[in-house]
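Lecture notes, unit on binding sites. The following record was shown on slide 14. It pairs a sequence with zinc ion.
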Amino acid sequence: MEEIPLWYWLAVFFVTGACVGSFYNVIVYRMPRGISLINPPSHCPLCKKHIPLYLNLPIVGWLILRGKSACCKQPISVIYPIGESLCGLLGALALYAATGFTTDFTAPVQNIEVWADALALFWLLLGIYPVSAVDFKYKLIPDSISVGGIVAGLAISFIPGGMTPVQSLVGALVAGGGLYLLGFVATKLLHKDAMGFGDVKLLAGFGALMGFSRAIEILVVASILGIIVMVPYAKIAERRAAKKASSKKSSQNEDEEVSGQIPFGPFLAFAAPFMYLWGNTLLEWYFSFLE
Ligand SMILES: [Zn+2]
């Protein structure tokens, strides 16, 4: 493993990311239709014919078929290979960022700590899409990402060089427990649900991946991002509601739409890989104003 050059590993991370993207495509198609993710195996949604594995390969399958299904020649949306390519790029970016954006692609990866960072970033970057999409649509965060993050963090902590398993465990407990307490207090004060338990588990995962202090910083950055996005959004929603109310007697449905809160998960999911990479830089920049 010591002699394998970086470019090779970047390709491996790209392919792995593209496979994750391909799996996302399956989830996006099957979940809303109530079809199991494993059974039946891959089949054409139009003529129900089985799709052989080699035509199911991410990106490559679509290119071989030139965007038409092999069985019934129906067009396959270009969205699929684009999504897979983006996930592949995010996967490669995870490793590339972990090397500190080196320019030497032929040198092998020497530092073992790079792998811990690369795997953590892989998890965080590829988690942005499912966390955001599911939270927007269903107002919940999938356990496979949040609880999965705790498991991934603990597993990665066994790679020497980064956090120890104890630090990872404490990170998960303090970050998750802290947010839970905060939500509990806020709920008592505001007399309404202030924090979803999905957010608590997600932050616990961040704590397991990068320690509790960084997880708390992510919470702060995500809250600031949330306010920056939310204030204009609320204004627009308000104006739209006013327009609708004046144009016709509005139904209850529209009122619901307006009052629907923006989920917090996407902000956490975006802030996490950013803070993993540039948390220290951001803090230095921030503290330079206080001196
Ligand atoms: Zn077909």
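Take-home: The two ends are 46 Å apart (CA to CA).
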